[in-house]
Amino acid sequence: MIIPEGTRLKLDPHDDYTHEPESASHYNESMYFNAFSREEGMGAWMRIGNRPNEGHAEMTCCVHLPDGQVGFMYGRLAISHNREMNAGPLRFEVLEPWKRFKVRYEGELLLMKRPLDMTDPSAAFKSNPKRAAAIELEFEGVAPVHGGEIVTMDGQPIVLDPANAVFRGHTEQHLAAEGHITVDGRRYPIAAGTGYRDKSWGPRHWHNFFWYRWLPVTFDRDFGVLLSIMGRKGQEPFIIGHVFQGGLLQPVSELRMHTEWDSEFMHRGFTTSFNASGRSYTLEGLVRSLIPLRHKPAAGAQPGSFTRITEAMTEYRCDGRTTLGMSEFCDVVTGGVPISHRLGWS
């Protein structure tokens, strides 16, 4: 998270609940969870983004199956308030702030043998079958929450430029996960699973993300890594991250990253190196399945450009451990080429 000069972060467990919406028409309050089972070779991620001033909630559910198929559903559900995270088939409950959460989904998923079909969402929904799905997951926070609301040094809310904002507050946390996922009649247990979550609130236009790499991975209840690289117009990328170990979040430094791309400029693997608490680490990622999602460009954007977020179930290796997690790459794409690639950033 980029913290402007003269501000600080305020971390409050009540921020796990919803907030009173600000007046900005594009106020957004979102929660995201992912869960993975290395034993089953699968995982899922779910997001609700309430936009009460626009009268709808964004709902996304995505399941990466062991055979490479991906089940996906997106919807805009009508809402009239911001009192809960409940968007049709998907519901999030805060059982205890910073500690325990529940996720439920009951509905259909578009089942794709070729997840890259989603490069053309309209065609994907016409050419792939929908199948019944149910998700019941409980999450436990196993690491300290990090992030918070950006406030002035005396704790007052900051003034945001709604046209350029992406959030007012943002928190993240490593998780343990238990439960089950059922797709097309087959039930997959998530036992001793791992996961990750984030929460954000404030004005948001998706196209205000220039480019970023988000690599959150939980290996077990006592080891995890977060690496986040934010591209900024006309400036060097902003890099933050940590190693979670021994109950502590140890900040990373000297991060380097090399990415392997396919012919469509979608990531297929990467290697990162960094330091934390006087130790050197290497985090390797190999994409197992990937789905590209897109957002419409801002008014006045270059013709043919759009914001693309590639969501990939990834096999991670670090410090002698192996697990599954998500890797998320976001770029403004123009002429088929991501902006970060044009800028020479791996």
- The total domain count is 2
Q: Give the assembly state of these chains.
A: single chain
N-to-C order of helices and strands: EEEEEEEEHEEEEEEEEEEEEEH
What is the overall shape? Answer: globular
Main β-sheet description: 8 strands, antiparallel, barrel
- What structural class should be given to the helix and strand makeup? mainly beta
User: Strand percentage, roughly?
Assistant: over 45%
* Structure summary, number of beta strands: 21
Estimate the mean pLDDT confidence. Answer: 93
CATH superfamily of the largest domain: AttH-like domain
> What fraction, in percent, of the residue positions are helical?
under 10%
Terminal CA distance reads: 20 Å
Low-pLDDT residue spans: none
What is the gyration radius calculated from CA atoms?
Answer: 19 Å
The third-level CATH topology of the largest domain is AttH-like fold
Major beta sheet, strand line-up:
2-3-4-5-8-9-11-12
CATH class wording of the largest domain? Mainly Beta
Name of the CATH architecture of the largest domain: Beta Barrel
Number of helices: 2
What would you say about this model in short?
This protein has 2 helices and 21 strands. With 346 residues, the chain is mainly beta. The two termini are 20 Å apart.
Descriptive report:
3% of the residues lie in helices and 63% in strands. It has 346 residues and is mainly β. The protein has two helices and 21 strands.
Structural features:
single chain, 346 residues, mainly beta, eight-stranded antiparallel beta barrel, eight-stranded antiparallel barrel, 2 helices, 21 strands
